[in-house]
Structures are given as structure tokens and as C-alpha cells.
Amino acid sequence: MNKKLIAGISAAVVVGVLCAAEFGGAYYFRNHYTPNTTINGVNVSGKSMDSAKQALDDSLNSYTLTIKGEATEDQLSASDIDFTYQYDTGNILETALSDQRPFEWVADLFGGREYTLETSYNADKLNEKISGMKCMNPDKKVQAQNAGVTYKDGAFEVVPEVYGNELDAETFSGVLAEQLTAGNTEYQIDCYIQPKLTQDSDAFKKAKSQLDAALQSAVTLKRDDISVTLSADDVASVLTIGDDLKASVDQEKLKTYVEENIAEPFETVGKERTVTTAGCGTFTISGGIYGYLVDVDGETEQLAKDILSGKSVEREPVYSREETYKDNGGLGSTYIDVSISQQRVWLVYGGKVIVDTPCVTGNVNNGTITPKGTYWIEFKRRNYAMPRYGVTVSYWMPIDTSTGVGLHDASWRSTFGGNYYISTGSHGCINLPVSAARTIYNNCFGTMPVVVH
Q1: Cβ atoms within 10 A of the Cβ of 250, count?
Q2: Dihedral Cα 433, 436, 440, 441, nearest 10 deg
Q3: Between β-strands 405-409 and 430-432, what pairing exists: parallel, antiparallel or unpaired?
Q4: Strand 373-376 relative to strand 381-386, pairing
Q5: Cα(272)–Cα(367) distance, rounded to whole angstroms?
Q6: What is the mean pLDDT of residues 87-112?
Q7: In this structure, what DSSP letter does residue 167 have?
């Protein structure tokens, strides 16, 4: 037999064998999975649907996920959390077969197909299992911390971020479920709670730059001879990087600073003041509600803006109450002077005495003495009813509504001045003859200072 004939017969045999294998494989893979077919990480190549299902179930019986932390190792088995495959959901096993082209099974030797069944598990059991894991309870728990700054020698220095070993239980639970679904047998934890701000991030560099700029602010609060300048140390003590990862002012710390360092020197309510009046000359008086009051919240808000501006600012504090005049201890040249000892009232307007009248102040014997201090006309009303005392006055000019004290006419009195106030005085108000009350009413205005002494 010649060589050509032998070669031809051999080739025919090989082709025949290959064709037989191809057709045989095509027939076989009509109801068996082609090579390199995996379902949830389990290789089901060459298996029928039933045998593939059995292989998947067997894999769960022996399945254990090893969870490796930085210095911990935990195990989680499918049985721990009632982990199962949902074969009836999505018809994945059937789909994996129908996707195949039996005559192309050879190509799958070099490729393969991957499918994923839906799964179910007992979330309560998983959470209980997680709560007892070593990775959730390391010997030394370290919280993640954002990069920050510290103030030293007049400048801010960077404090690097801290990468902790704390896990978010909810996130961790979801990751473990994904690992089980994928059929992975080992998982290196990569979901530790991370710092939101790192020293190399653009956000941190920007915030640090803002802090440095704010440190250059020069804020001075000034009124007359009172002055408070925030030092670099003061500014640094209230600066921080906020939750928005930007330079910000700690409002509570700044509010405390305002209360302790700004309110006290700039407020005058109740404090001693020296005044000169047309009727009584020069004297010192304290008490009352008249004067400067710092609006702590308003000043805190404005001061925060000034600090973050990084600019030089000089201004008065933000007040909730101000004195009407700056001279003569706040009385200026337009005021009402009430002398308890002399039982007289003077209305002075622009330095000129408009009214000089006797009065009756609070009853000494009954303890309803008219309180001394500096006040102001809060408002004025005509024909004002005082049901507590059963009277209506024609001219009502309160100087402190918190105590109910004010100036008003007292038509029921026939005598004013002298010592009547000691035993038959008022409940604290300044009683006036009707004509004097009328003139004072017509010439006074809200915020006009009233000094009682």
C-alpha cells in the first residue's frame, strides 16, 4: 500500500473521529452544561440540571467563608445563617442550558459561562453572627479620624488622618452576603470605615488654606474707650474643619468667647454711670434696664463672618439694646430726672427744663419703693386701664414693663411732693399731677432716658 493512500486513510479516520466527537458532544450538551460553566462559583461542567443542583447544594453543606481582618480571622458557614439558593427565581438553571449552542461546545473549552442564582439567608442570624466576630470586636478598637490641624506657635500644623479598624455592621453584612453568593471561600476585609478627609486630598488642602487665611484676620471691637481685639490665639481657638470639610467656626466656642470677653466690657445695663442733671447736679447711679446689651447670637454670627473673611475689621459689637445718647452717661441733654429724695420730676429737652413738678413715688412703708436706676420710656399710651389697681390713667409712660413701673397721672391725688410717699406712696410708679403728666407725655418719646435716684 503506498504512502499516499495510508495518509489519506489516516486523515479520514481523524476527521471521522473528530466529527463523531463533535456530534457526540453536541448531542450530550443538549441537556448537560458545556465546559467551564459555573453557577455561583460552582463548576457544573458536564452536569445535568439535576446533578448541577445537587452539586450546588453539596457546595453549601461544606461551604465556609474565611474572613481575614488586619489581625483577626473569622469563619462564616452557609448553615450559620440558613443560606440557600433560590432555584425557582429567575429560572437560572434552565437559562444556562438554553443559552448554550451544543455544536459550539468546543469553543467553551477556551472560554466559559458564569451564572448567578438568587439567594436567601436569615438576616437576623447574620447580624448576630457578625456581632460576635473578632473583626467587629478587635482587642484594640481604633476609630477612623479625618485629617485635621493643631495650632502651635502661631500657626496651624497638619494632623494626619487615622485609618481605623472599625466596621460598619450594615455595610459589612451586605458585603458578606455578596461573598457567599459568589461562592468565594476567602475574603480580605476591605470595608473598614474610612476617614472622609485625608491630608493629601484637595478638600483638606483647601480647608487648611482657608484656616491659614482666617488666622490673618484682625478683628477689633471698639466703642469710645472700650476696645477688644481678638488675638491669633483667640481666632485659632474657635477655628475648625467642619462637617462640610471646609474651614468653619465652632459656633459654641465662639459664643462662649463672646459671652466672656465681649458682652461684659461692652454692656452697661445695670452698671454704674455718672450723670449730670439739671435738677440734681452730678451723681453716680446703677441699676435699671437702660444701656447697651450685646446680642450674643448676632455678635457670634457676625464675628464668625469677620474671622473667616481673613480681613482687618474694626466695628462696634452687635447690640440687642443701645443707649440713646453717648454723652452724659447715656442721658445726653434730653431726659427725665426722677428724684425720690426730693419727690420731684424734671423733663429736660435739649438741655432746657420743660417740666419741673412734684411727684409721689413708691410707698416705703409697704415696701413698694420705686426701683432706682437708669431706664427709658418704652412706649406711651392714652387712657390706659390698670385693672389690677382698678383705675384708668390718661397718660401712661412705662419705663420698665417687666416690673410694671412707669410715669402716669394720678387724678385721685390732691397733694404731691413732700413725704407722702413714705406712708401713702404708690405701688412703685411715679405719680404726677395731670397737667405735668400731659406735658411730659406730649414731649417724651420711646427710648428717652429716665434716671431714678
Answers
A1: 15
A2: 60
A3: parallel
A4: unpaired
A5: 24
A6: 77
A7: B
Segments in 371-429 forming alpha helices (H): 420-424
Averaged pLDDT, 264-290: 97
| Dist CA 257 CA 300 (whole Å) | 9
**Beta carbons of 336 and 377 less than 8 angstroms apart:** yes
CA distance 3 to 109: 35
CB of 395 within 8 A of CB of 351?
A: no
Output the nine-digit C-alpha cell for 149: 490641624
**84-86 and 226-229 strand pairing:** unpaired
Supply 182's cell numbers: 459568589
Asked if pLDDT for residue 238 goes beyond 60, the answer is yes
Over the stretch 374-424, which tens digit does the pLDDT of each residue have? 999 999 999 999 998 999 999 999 999 999 999 999 999 999 999 999 999
Amino acid at 307: I
The answer to whether 395 and 409 have CB atoms below 8 angstroms apart is yes
- Measure CA 51 to chain center: 59
**Residue 378 and residue 380: Cα distance in Å, rounded?**
7
The chain-wide mean pLDDT, for the chain, equals 90
pLDDT for res 2: 63
- HEC letters along 371-435: CCEEEECCCCEEEEEECCCCEEEEEEEEEECCCCEEEEECCCCCCCCCCHHHHHCECCCEEECHH
Q: What is the DSSP string of 206-259?
A: HHHHHHHHHTT-EEEEEETTEEEE--HHHHHHHEEE-TTSSEEE-HHHHHHHII
The dihedral formed by the CA atoms of 136, 140, 145 and 150, expressed in degrees to the nearest 10: 170
Return phi, psi of residue 65, to 5°.
Answer: -100, 120
Place of cell 481582618: 69
Beta strands in 234-326 (DSSP E): 239-241, 247-249, 270-277, 281-287, 293-294, 312-315, 319-321
Phi–psi pair at 445, nearest 5 degrees: -150, 160
Cross-strand partners of 226: 223
Residue 64 half-sphere exposure, CB side, CA atoms within 13 Å? 6
132-148 b/e (C-beta count within 10 Å ≥ 16 → b): ebebbebeeeeeeebbb
Cell 464668625 sits at which residue? 304
Q: In this structure, what is the dihedral angle of CA atoms 264, 265, 266, 271, given to the nearest 10 degrees?
A: 80
